[in-house]
């Protein structure tokens, strides 16, 4: 019996995306069988199992970015009681969440189950463990409910007196499985990528404050004569200006792979999207530099709604060549970000604000934004980064040409 | 429309664009951005939804007037919803 985990498929691999299961709970597998397909930065890789046994449960959801070591599946000896139960209860379709129902039991179960295990305990366990007794302690109501629902009482963790199974435990055991906490998974994925970034990428940072009067005036006039569904956001202008600047300054647009910078021939602009409820994804809009503003706006709307519904395509998550991260309308003035590997730069925008600025002979209030570029010193230097920020600024001064 | 109908239409649109919000727990004075954490894309989607449902084209300069449900109900009433 063992837990099959996300293997390390290379020294630099922090995480992989599970894209396909080739087995179902109940399948018999032999050492060397391919059981899953994992998408890594080196492409799709077929993953082999290390032992003979029966797949007792799939523990990871398709599409999740999983750090190396994350449990993916449980492989047990043939004929194990859990496997039988799984095979009976799990539907034929691949529902990764279903086996999670067993997780509370798995946590509580001793490594080698058996009644003898409970004797030499120095202290009582926090929660009584299910045992192999023929007739587990259970309240009459729990027993009746278990019979009605077809729940096996011997695998239900009891919370009643002396570890007896009570009605609530049966209902709990029957309740639909809770999927892995997506927010926690997301945080782990972010952590893996950011740790790798900070470890490998010699970041340097440049900031500049950009006057937004031209862009906001143009945008207000544009939106004034349009119904809401045809309006643009300032963020659309930022995205287009960033894409155009990246197309001009190629050293910030591409991937750093195998100690070599590979400039991209188009701009797949990653847009950092914060998810309601926590977490962040940065799916990319392909060929952003060639899309007219209304089309770019539609693509952004579509991507934000799909990001929030967790329906992004894997290509969107891997194809980004430069990422834009904006704080939005309110918040801090400036943000200095961490590059998303294998990309080599990240453009961060603080919240736009009104600021007194020297204009001509006087001082006037102007709407401005602080743009900060984090860049990879293996690929570019301050001069290059300045060229990018200058180009970005210039595009925002001529919004009608965006 | 009555005030209650307008409020319901507004909250319906709001919970449609941010499905994690529960209409029953949204206060009349809750600020869409500061309290309910809507961003500019959400606000635009909300205004689009109100346009579809109430046939009211809310100009950008009036966005501050729908910053809370209470303000929005007042504004939408004045605007002829």
From TrEMBL, chain A:
Low complexity bias spans: 108-120, 131-143
Organism: Tranquillimonas alkanivorans
PROSITE patterns in the record: BIOTINYL_LIPOYL, LIPOYL, PSBD
Cofactor(s) needed for function: (R)-lipoate
Keywords: Acyltransferase, Lipoyl, Pyruvate, Transferase
Lipoyl-binding domain boundaries: 1-76
Protein name: Dihydrolipoamide acetyltransferase component of pyruvate dehydrogenase complex
Subunit structure: Forms a 24-polypeptide structural core with octahedral symmetry.
UniProtKB/TrEMBL annotation, chain B:
InterPro entries, A to Z: ACP-like_sf (IPR036736), PP-bd_ACP (IPR009081)
Organism: Tranquillimonas alkanivorans
Domain of life from the UniProt record: Bacteria
Domain (Carrier) ranges: 1-80
Protein name per the record: Acyl carrier protein
């Amino acid at each position: 019996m063992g837990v099959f985990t996300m293997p390390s498929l290379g020294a630099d691999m922090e995480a992989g995306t599970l894209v396909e299961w080739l087995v179902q709970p109940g399948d018999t597998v032999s050492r060397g069988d391919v059981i899953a397909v994992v998408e890594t930065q080196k492409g799709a890789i077929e993953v082999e199992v290390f032992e003979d046994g029966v797949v007792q449960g799939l523990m990871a959801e398709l599409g999740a970015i999983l750090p190396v070591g994350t449990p993916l599946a449980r492989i047990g000896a043939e004929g194990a009681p859990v496997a039988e139960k799984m095979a009976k209860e799990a539907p034929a379709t691949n529902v990764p969440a279903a086996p999670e129902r067993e997780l509370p039991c798995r946590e509580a179960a001793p490594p080698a189950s058996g009644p003898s295990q409970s004797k030499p305990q120095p202290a009582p366990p926090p929660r009584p463990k299910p045992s192999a007794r023929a007739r587990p302690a259970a309240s009459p109501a729990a027993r009746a409910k278990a019979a009605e629902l077809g729940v096996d009482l011997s695998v239900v963790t009891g919370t009643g007196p002396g570890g007896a199974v009570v009605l609530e435990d049966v209902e709990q055991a029957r309740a639909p499985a809770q999927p892995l906490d997506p927010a926690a998974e997301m945080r782990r994925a972010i952590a893996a990528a950011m740790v790798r970034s900070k470890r490998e990428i010699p970041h340097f940072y440049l900031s500049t404050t950009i006057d937004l009067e031209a862009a906001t005036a143009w945008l207000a006039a544009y939106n004034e004569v349009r119904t809401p569904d045809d309006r643009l956001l300032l963020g659309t202008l930022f995205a287009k200006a960033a894409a155009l600047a990246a197309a001009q300054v190629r050293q910030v647009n591409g991937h750093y792979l195998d100690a070599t910078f590979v400039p991209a021939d188009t701009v797949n602009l990653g847009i950092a999207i914060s998810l309601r409820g926590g977490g962040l994804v940065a799916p990319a809009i392909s060929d952003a530099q060639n899309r007219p503003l209304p089309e770019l706006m539609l693509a952004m709307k579509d991507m934000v709604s799909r990001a929030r519904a967790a329906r992004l395509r894997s290509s969107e998550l891997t194809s980004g060549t430069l990422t834009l991260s904006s704080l939005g309308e309110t918040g801090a003035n400036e943000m200095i970000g961490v590059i998303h590997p294998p990309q080599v730069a990240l453009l961060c925008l603080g919240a736009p604000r009104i600021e007194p600025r020297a204009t001509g002979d006087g001082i006037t209030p102007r709407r401005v934004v602080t743009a900060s570029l984090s860049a990879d010193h293996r690929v570019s230097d301050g001069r290059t980064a300045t060229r990018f920020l200058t180009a970005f600024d210039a595009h925002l001064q001529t919004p009608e040409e965006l | 429309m009555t005030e209650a109908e307008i409020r319901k239409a507004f909250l319906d649109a709001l919970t449609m664009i941010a499905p994690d919000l529960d209409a029953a727990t949204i206060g009349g004075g809750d600020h869409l951005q500061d309290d309910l954490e809507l961003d500019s894309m959400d606000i635009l989607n909300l205004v689009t939804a109100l346009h579809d449902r109430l046939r009211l084209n809310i100009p950008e300069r009036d966005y501050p007037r729908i910053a809370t449900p209470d303000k929005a109900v007042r504004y939408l009433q004045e605007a002829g919803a």
